[in-house]
Amino acid sequence: MSYTFINYYKNNMKTFILLIVTIMLLNNDLIAQSKEKETVKKQLETIDGVRYDFKIKFTLFEVEDITVGDSLKILKENFKKNKTSKIEAFNKSIASYNKKILEQDQKTGIRAISAKALKELFTKEKTKYETKLQEVESWQYQVYKPYTVKDTTEILNKYVKTHFTALKPGEKTESLYKGEFILDKLSEKCLKSRNLKKVKVSF
Hints:
Elements: H1 3-45, E1 46-47, E2 50-51, E3 57-67, H2 68-105, H3 111-137, E4 155-166, E5 175-184, E6 190-198
Antiparallel strand pairs: 1-2, 3-4, 4-5, 5-6
Helix pairs in contact: 2-3
């Protein structure tokens, strides 16, 4: 057996092995996505514990892993949004009471008598919001305790984005829908669905 033939044989074996590995990986992905599709389909077709056949066909089905790191990022972003929103709301209320207090200071004559009581009331309310503002401004982001001991690459859930057609009872033609779903990490249960709505098709 010549060296050239042996070398050719080795190179082809490498290609063959690579092809087999690729097919196996693709097959595993198809099996996993088939499981995820069935879980989403079951969620869509089950109403009050009874499952119907809506003739669902997926035209788009994208799956992403949600890791501990992803969850931590979302929690931090939500914390920042919540803090910013409250600070803006309290500052708006304080500004409103400052305006009302100034209006009372500008009243004269008989109106100044009632203005004094109103000023005290507005000042008291403004002080409440200033206290709340100081409290919120002191907030510091803290990692949710169960996550402090977890690997940030650990998969917690699956995120599914999909477009699909369905034929509901009483309808004569299929309609196109889109939605997002959160599955457990094993893709066995649908934990949450959101933004599920019919898509209007225009030509």
